[in-house]
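HUMAN: Can I see a protein plus its fold?

ASSISTANT:
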Amino acid sequence: MKKDNCTAMLVGKDASIDGSTMIARDEDGYGGINEKLFVVNKARHYDEDYVSKYNGFKMHLIGDGCRYTAAPTADDSEGRWDEQGINEYNVAMSSTETEATNARCLGHDPLVENGIDEDSMLYLVLPFVKTAREGVKRLGQLIEKYGTGETNGIAFSDHDEVWYLETAAGHQWVAARVPDDSYAICPNIMVIQNVDFDDPDNFMYASTIRDFVEKHHLNPAQDGGFNFRDIFGTKDEADAFYNTPRTWYGQKLFNPSIEQDPTSQEMPFTRVPEKKIGVEDVQKFLTSHYNGTPYDPMDTFSSGDEKQQKMFRSIALDRNQESSILQIRNDVPKEMAAIQWVNMGFYCYSPYVPFYANINDTPANYKVADHMVDPDKSAYWMYKTLQVLVEPRYHQYIYQVNAYRDDCQACALAHIDETDPKAKELKGEELTKFLTAANEKTAAEITEKTKKLMSALVRQALNSSKYQFERGDNL
């Protein structure tokens, strides 16, 4: 169940084209199948002895929890894996980006086998926080108290701030605020660099981390600085081909004037983009496969040879399961500001569908993903089936697929434009019901567009089959 193949992108409010904050992540897996849902968890009082089905982590969970969205695994027999969502206070959380700690640090603070891990983090944090900072603080305290069995990166945001928290070894962590005018690309390696312990506005950290590093002589810096990536990270050959090229490509998209080596392990955590970033730009990156470079494994307008095309780990690949862009807007009332854009299936074939987060339910086909493949019943299986149709005839179908995705994005934005003015006139439960119904309408229209595309692709495949034989073909 462990998912260690994700890619994340974070955008500060002044770096975005409309003043939104955005945290976004592709959730991938080990194999091609990991049935996912999109659901709403209602506000309630918690008083339970929580036990993780994944690793046996235990804690008594008590308190009043708010409503929140989530993208859990359909089969919870090996844990919840709520992954990413937005709560009713417009706090977004994405957990997690799997990373690695070097052996030197792990020797002094080993990972905790039954500590708080990815499967539990969102469930134990998001219902109980009202700001992104509170999210960082709560998770950090849980890691220090219980330890963690993984090295992870976790993103938090609200209308004002974007934070990235990274764990290291069993009980160590730091969190850095992404500057408002900047973005960050996060593959499966540590990305936070220099930590300023005298700047509480922009950094938070474990209470033990400075003493831990000093006691065990872990800091290699000559200048006395504290570079979290250099102290705790791995920086091995696998990172250079599996991880850093994704950072390179993201920074190439948003800072095209900067020349970097795809395998460099010194690329900065954050950059100021050369142009403002829209939600479509985040989608472009999270669905990319080194498009337009020699490293494109799909050979789309690529000048690379077969070796180059297989050199780097692509973002779009068969392990894609669910991707979310968690957008908190600042140009509308807070009651309708949060939108979770959800993409299921193979990301570069599927569209992102926008769901207002102030809702009491999600569409029926987003709440079902059984082991039986049923595209009519399940959104997950509909988009996974689309993947099966497109992949064998990628170059034949890709123009239609791209046109379909553009059409879905235009449809999504039109629905938001239609919904926002009406929503501004409503309050309370009436507004929540209205936004829930609006999501149903958007999802239904995009589902219908998807089914029409699939029908067209099946008909084309049947009409172009190579296994045909006409009278006289043997003459």
User: Anything to note?
Assistant: The longest helix spans residues 428-463.
